[in-house]
Amino acid sequence: LIERTAKKLKKLQKRHSDVMETVIRAANDEMLKCGKNYVLKHGVCIDGISIKLMYAKPASNMNEKMVENYKSNIFSVMEEVWVSQTERMDLVLFLNGIAIVTMELKYTPSGQNYRFAINQYKNARNKNTKIFDVMTGAVVNFAMDENEVYMSTYINGKDTVFLPFNQGTGTGIDAEAGNPACKNEFPVHYMYDYIMLPDTVLNLIANYIYVDNNSLLIFPRFHQIDCVEKLIEAVKKNRTKKDYLIQHSAGSGKTNEIAWLSYRLASLHDAENKIIFDSIIICTDRVVVDRQLQQA
After folding, report:
1. 86-89 contacts: CB < 8 A, separation 24 or more?
2. Beta bridge partners of 93
3. Is the dihedral of CA 218, 173, 243, 282 positive or negative?
4. Distance (Å, whole) CA 180 – CA 171
5. DSSP E strands, 140-283
6. Do 151 and 138 touch, CB atoms closer than 8 A?
7. Would residue 104 be called left, alpha or beta, if left means φ above 0 and alpha means ψ between -120 and 50 degrees?
8. Residue from 110, 103, 107, 109 nearest 80 by CA
9. For residue 290, which phi and psi values (nearest 5 degrees)?
10. Is 80 exceeded by the pLDDT of residue 36?
């Protein structure tokens, strides 16, 4: 991978003296038009030469080069990152050198919780700072303490909207918000034990995050990721032997879940690298929902 990239850059160097600056400028220009997530997935083309910025996990292991490329992605995390002369973030996560996640962290015994983090994003963060730009900035921003997590994809001053990114507690009529208590871990351990793992982050970029018709970046909430991934694993194991019922309240993101699940099932392979389904059929009894699903 490094050798192939080096060859491409060497070709570009014949026409552009500062080749890395050329790549960065091209990526930035493309992000301004299409958004960071699109450019991460598709890369940039300069003078007919394609430069990849990340490699998604292939649907099967048949192509060894694609698997090798996928494993070559480089993740890094920095703490106390100055993103402007006056703004410092607790944590920033990078993929191949590109900032993709920001985090503000609080600890309740010190007298602050996730609400203080949300307040920082709303009142102490400039939406014009590069890392918060809706097109070129991080794909998601997390405000969290050791008990709860909230997220936003659009930092817009006091109008910034944060949505819960919690697991929820209880089941059925006893279900509530928040995260279940843990004996030996913080309740938000799923963030560093699962969500921020390289495989999950690449999966989110490749298969979940997208820009909707209102030019808003859509990042799934935890219950949506949890639902789709559990169904994918169940289908790998049981094929069509079982039926599944997903029950949601109004406004919890059913349309996106159906779209994400269909997208994943369409390319799902089994342990022998054979595609499992030939077609995915979606049935709905409401015209409005049908239209929403088509758009999604």
Report:
1. 87/124, 87/125, 87/126, 87/129, 89/131
2. 77, 101
3. negative
4. 11
5. 140-144, 149-152, 163-164, 210-211, 217-218
6. no
7. beta
8. 103
9. -60, -45
10. yes
Extract the tokens encoding 254.
């059913």
The pTM of the whole model exceeds 0.85:
yes
Specify the pLDDT at position 175. 80
Judge whether 132 and 155 are in contact, CB under 8 Å. yes
3-state DSSP assignment of residue 102? strand
16-23's contacts with Cβ under 8 Å and 24+ in sequence apart are 16/46, 22/46, 23/51
* AA identity, residue 181: A
As a whole number of angstroms, the distance between CA 116 and CA 106 comes to 7
267 neighbors 275 (Cβ within 8 angstroms):
yes
The Cα 129–Cα 157 span in angstroms is: 12
Q: How far is CA 222 from the centre of its chain?
A: 11
* Cα distance between residue 103 and residue 91, in whole Å: 5
Q: How many residues does the chain have?
A: 296
Look up residue 110 and give its DSSP letter.
Answer: G
- Dig out the tokens for 260 from the structure: 């994400």
Neighbouring CB atoms inside 10 A of 140's CB total 22
Per-residue HEC secondary structure of 128-180 comes to: CCHHHCCCCCCCEEEEECCCCEEEECCCCHHHCCCEECCCCECCHHHCECCCC
* CA 267 centroid distance within chain: 19
- Residue pair 142/165 in contact (Cβ under 8 Å)? The answer is yes
**Which pLDDT belongs to residue 109?**
94
Position 173 scores a pLDDT of 74
Residue with tokens 């493309």, as numbered in its chain: 30
Pairing of strands 44-46, 49-51: antiparallel
